[in-house]
Design a protein that fits this description.
Helix content is 51%, strand content 3%. By secondary structure, it is an all-alpha fold. It has a two-stranded antiparallel sheet. Helix 3 (23-50) packs antiparallel against helix 4 (55-75), helix 4 (55-75) runs antiparallel to helix 8 (151-171) and helix 7 (119-146) runs antiparallel to helix 8 (151-171). The protein is elongated and about 55 Å long.
């Protein structure tokens, strides 16, 4: 789950210079990502051969995934709080919640063909990145002009960013399942991919109307209709 706290009042100045302020984090992410790339390759061989994800490697990429989620939230204006450098993001208002330990055993076949299995969710992540960028740009304009963030606009941006962030553990072999299209316990798109039912769709078929009760007596006077 990717959880982000909403705060309406925002800093116009830090919003205006957001990409400049994030440059140090971009550098850290780049260096950490290079090392993590090597770690994931080593983990790939370990899982294919043994079915186990080495705990030290898992901890290393676990920290990167959570740190990256915090930085992405800051860059996309989901929060004004400057991210800490490193994996200690427990108190940060944007949290990617993951198991801090690897699975007891991994499927070797799924890991072996991960580069192929990643293609469908990668296409979805690319499409959702466009949603996130549009939302972040509109939020940038709104905050610079008014000093406030709109909740609906934030939810729109978070929806686009969430899938990309939750796909990181799959990229890094930490999980064997694709992320759901919607953020668990978060916003969902109506009517599909785990979202709520379409408006107006009945949960169950309505019961047929009951037949009218047969009259117990006949005629206007309550006597036998055949006798008048």
């Amino acid at each position: 789950m990717y959880d982000v706290e909403f705060v309406e009042d925002r800093s116009r100045l830090s919003t205006f210079f957001r990409y400049l302020l994030a440059i140090p984090h971009f550098i850290v992410l780049f260096v950490w990502g290079l090392v993590a790339y090597i770690a994931v390759i080593v983990a790939w061989f370990a899982i294919v051969l043994t079915g186990q994800y080495p705990a030290a490697l898992y901890s290393f990429v676990y920290g990167l995934a959570r740190y990256a989620a915090a930085v992405y939230a800051y860059v996309h204006l989901l929060t004004d709080e400057y991210p800490p450098f490193g994996p200690d993001v427990e108190s940060y208002p944007a949290q990617l919640k993951l198991p801090d330990q690897p699975l007891p055993e991994y499927d070797r076949i799924k890991t072996l063909f991960r580069i192929i299995l990643i293609i469908p969710p990668a296409i979805i992540a690319y499409a959702m990145s466009i949603v996130a960028e549009i939302g972040a740009f509109l939020a940038w304009v709104l905050i610079v002009v008014t000093g406030k963030q709109n909740k609906g606009l934030q939810d729109f941006t978070q929806l686009g960013l969430s899938y990309q962030v939750r796909l990181l553990p799959y990229y890094m072999l930490m999980t064997e399942t694709w992320p759901s299209f919607t953020n668990p316990d978060g916003d969902a798109l109506p009517g599909g991919f785990g979202g709520p039912e379409l408006p107006g769709a009945p949960a169950t078929s309505p019961a047929p109307p009951a037949a009218p009760e047969a009259p117990r007596g006949g005629g206007l006077s309550g006597g036998d209709p055949l006798n008048g």
